[in-house]
Predict the structure.
Amino acid sequence: MPRRIVVPFGPQHPVLPEPIHLDLVLKDERVESVLPSIGYVHRGLETLVAKREYPEYVYIAERTCGICSFIHGMTYCQAVEQLVDCTVPDRALFLRTIWSEYSRLHSHLLWLGLFADALGFENLFMACWRLRESVLDVLEETTGGRVIQGSCKVGGVRKDIPGETLERMRRGLDGIEREARDIADVFLRDDSILSRTQGIGLLSREDAYTLGAVGPTARASGVRIDLRQTGYAAYGRLSFRPVVEEAGDCHARCTVRVRELFTSIDLIREAIAKIPDGPLEDRPKKNPEGEAFSRAEQPRGELVHYVRGDGSRHLMRSRIRTPTLTNLPPLVRMLQGCNLADVPVIVLSIDPCIGCAER
Amino acid sequence: MAFFEMAKMAIITVLRKPSTRRYPSVPAKRTPLSRGRVTIDPSRCISCGMCMKKCPSGAICVRKEEKTWSIDRLKCIVCNCCVEVCPAHCLTMETGYTPCVTEHRARDTVTITYVKPERPKKSESGEKEEKAS
């Protein structure tokens, strides 16, 4: 007669530095149901919007997440720009695109490293993070910050990338691509990785759609959602095709992220080739009044920023919806029926960023 | 059979130079834009308090009467905001980080030594000279 027991997973767990707590209801070794709970790292960043002036809140919006910080800052700026009547110059849009894609590269490489580490593949983990360092070096050289770039502002960007640096970045991408190919070969073909990931944590296309999966989690189940298709920043002028996989298991989610490395590299190359000359910013003509939504594609999925202003220098309300929060219901579905030993791999496969989800 | 997919990368890793550096004997990587710590030139600060007003984390405190400028290094998020808004350009961002501390000591306080230059008084003779010229 099998017994039901409840095993707590997290908030402190060796495989996952992010504080999420899952109550796993087990029948023998099999997970029957899952109760997730978050709320360990809430910082009240959205409330701060009323206490800081809107141009200074960019710095706080960026610090919502320690990985995809640039895209948070950019999405907030996009929302405020709708309220202050300013047109962002083309060069600034292209620079935002380049930095967004470098952020995606470093976030995906970080995740691939953590994923390899969760499987016990330490050597591959080191290889991913070594490659990530070269991406971070470019970010530091062009913006001054390794993970918190601070180069986006309402109306444009703070820093320019000179022509010779762009050329050096373009040449550097060849080396990054070469090393990424080696890493990709291991992730896509190595037997030990395939045996730990294939057919595990299945999420069907219907479930992914109805439970509101976003980003690589949705695309790995065959849902063709990628906000870069909407053409925000300079994506409308670049040839972009979303990466979609059909299998819906952990390996498909890994494959989507591996293939997106190369999509990002191609997008950066194209943006460097097409970047126009011109001014870097347009000054806001009034204080923000009214309300606005802005959406962007983070490495983890769709990010939404909402702001409301009353015509003063301080915004009244800010609301951030991060991709991890929407990926939690699909995660619960993936975990039902899996083995206890596979739980860390499945939890990691949605790339959870709880610090970002709780703000 | 793709069991030895990793072998090529592992062999190259063994043969190549270490990717890490022996810090602190070898200094850390820095770029001219790196944000390390905020420093002030007290002889140029006009005590306007813009840095204190705009600081997102509230780390800076300027006291006009006591002529002091202070910063809490552990609160500072090194965002470069104060450097950008300073009208007297007395704040700069250094590339080196603040050295580690073992206890949260008092704030870094600097006495402002700026002396407002006296306006040249327009003497009657001076005015006459100007008119003459």
Notes: Residues 45-335+347-358 of chain A form a domain with the Cytochrome-c3 Hydrogenase; chain B fold (CATH 1.10.645.10). The beta strands of chain A are 4-9, 21-27, 30-37, 152-153, 156-157, 289-298, 301-310, 315-321. Chain A has a mean pLDDT of 88.
